[in-house]
Amino acid sequence: MRTAIRFLRKGQVVELDRFEPTTTLLDYLRLSEHATGTKEGCGEGDCGACTIALGRLRDGKLVYEPVNSCILLLGQIDGCELVTVEDLEGRDGLHPVQQALVDLHGSQCGFCTPGFVMNLFTLYHTNTPGLTRQNVNTWIAGNLCRCTGYRPIVDAALEACRNGLNDAFADRAAETESKLAALQDGLDVRVGDGEQFFFAPSSFQSLLETYGEHPDATLVSGSTDVGLWVTKHLRDLPKVIYLGRVNGLSTCYEDEQGIRLGAGASYAVAEQFLTAIDPDLEVVISRIGSKQVRASGTVGGNIANGSPIGDMPPMLIALGAEIELQSNRGRRTLPLESFFIDYGKQDIAENEVLTSISVPRMGEGQQFRAYKISKRFDQDISAVMAAFCLTVTDGVIEAARMALGGMAGIPKRASGAEAALLGASLADPGSWQDALNAIESDFLPMSDMRASSSYRRDVARGLLEKALLEISEASSHQTRVHGQRDLVAGGAHVN
Fold it and tell me: What are the DSSP calls for 32-52, one per residue?
């Protein structure tokens, strides 16, 4: 057992053994370190002003990822390298990203600039050849600026990333990797006492034992949801159990049955496995939060919080995913759709922890489509999230799984439409009509700030028709303004 978190800061190991369980990284930087270059904007992970970089080992290699420090808990950076805007200037002057922003007039008021600098620092360290303007736009979707305008910021990114890595961080990467590896000691970390603590177990056994003893503790994975409980709801969470250090909980792999995602895997880790299933998962995942959110947020967390508007559950349900739950009483598996019982109610017993998600391989003749409908393209909550998985033989639909979010108190299958679609011919749109009518009556969605009930029903019907048109080989250039699917040798890809 270790009683302090440890992280790398400016090449040195920092140990902290006293802090509140819900202390955010932003508050630590500004109030304890007085490193005020990192700004507080929205306080909910949307604006990017608070972006910092965390250096982590991925398969033994150093990777820098952007995160929102306003909602990340301080204890979560154990074992990482913490990099802020104050750290970038070297002996030879500004960092290439900073210099490019100066030269190309990428800053005016400057409040958002540190967040842009740090996000572009992580892009710089991907060392991506042939970087395009669209690549940069996608990368900085989680950073807002209201005075410079994005054109000079993107110009600066392209200029800075044009000539490969040439900064002090790249020069000492091997040394940093060695220091980070030395921090991985495999010990449980507990800061605090029996009544108030931040606990980061290193094994399933430690996790289950402690959660069994403290069922009132709050489980934290990526903190992209719990962080808002702290900053916006001002909730008192005296006992926090952080899942990010549990050995094996973030492991993802592929086998003959399909893919298995550790519930603690961030989207940044899991997306390479998910996007290999079908191009539409890549399209939707690119719109879940931002780079900062996907570097922290986890697939398991998106499921466990039980939100009716989470983007992943409808897609995973349509694909026939199962989940595994563990407690000190044993483990069990169940279909993902059975996990959601009612609004705010899931099939999870006291002390149980969601540990993994298994997604079967798509079978012969199966076709998948997924669509996210929201008011804003990037970083927005879905009004309707729809996923369809159809099994087609000789142009006839033999099986259908459809799941939608935003249409009920839980992510839910469209059982009436599924039944009505069996036996329908893709070549005969008239045979689709019963299913199109049924999907409208499968749900009684509410009206709220995102959409009215009637709009949601109309959208659900339209998305089913779109999926059927596309699967019947209509060009997605006729049905989509983004993420068009083109048939190429060996499969589909997304433009």
Answer: II--TTSPP-SSSSSS-TTEE
